[in-house]
Amino acid sequence: MAAAIRLAAATARLVGRLAEGVAALAFAAMVLLFAAAIASRHGLAAPIRWSDEVVTLTFIWIVFGAAAFAIPYREHIAVGLLYDRLSPGRRRWMEAGGTLAAGLVLAATLPATIDYTAFLWRERTPALMWPLDRAYAVFAVFQGMMALRLLVRAGAAVLGRPLPA
User: What is the pLDDT of residues 40-63, one digit of tens each?
Assistant: First the structure.
C-alpha cells in the first residue's frame, strides 16, 4: 500500500511538472500571438481575425489546466481566519470536512458538467469553427481532477496521514 501511495505521489509530481511546462509554453505562445495581433491590427491595418479566439481559449486552458494539475493545494485561494486559530487536531478535522464536502460536490456535479460540455458539440467558435465541446472540455477535466485531489486530501486527513500537496 505504501509503495502504491509513493508511486501515485511521484506520478502526480511528474504530471504537475509537465503541466507547468506546457502552461509556460502556452502562455508564451499566447503573449506572442496577442502581440502579433496588436501589431497587425494597428501597424498593418490588417487584423488577424482568429487571434482573439485562440488567445481566449488558450488562456482558459492554461488557467484551468494549471489549476487542475500544476498548482499545489496550498497555493489555491483560501480563507484561513478560523482555520489558523485552531489546534492542529481540529485543523485536521476541519480540513477533512471541508475538502470532503467540496470534493463530493464537485464529483456529484461532474456528470452534469460533462453532459453540458458534450452538448456543445453543436456549436462552433466564430472564426476557426472549432467545436465548443473540445474548446471547453478543460472545465470537466478541471472539475474531475479537483474532485479527486480534494477527496484524496480528505481521506489523508481522516486517516491521519500527511496531507498531499
Answer: 999 988 889 899 999 999 999 999
Listed in sequence order, the DSSP H helices in 39-78 are: 51-69
The C-alpha atoms of residue 155 and residue 161 are separated, in whole angstroms, by: 8
Going from N- to C-terminal start, the domains of the chain cover: 1-71, 74-165
Angle between helices 88-119 and 137-159 (to 10 degrees): 160
**pTM given for the model:** 0.84
At 9-20, the pLDDT tens digits run: 788 888 889 999
Does residue 47 come out as left (phi exceeding 0), alpha (psi in the -120 to 50 range) or beta?
A: beta
Identify whether the C-beta of residue 137 lies closer than 8 Å to the C-beta of residue 127.
no
Torsion sign across C-alpha atoms 22, 24, 30, 35: negative
DSSP per-residue string spanning 89-145: HHHHHHHHHHHHHHHHHHHHHHHHHHHHHHHGGG-B-TTT--BHHHHTHHHHHHHHH
DSSP annotation of 82 reads T
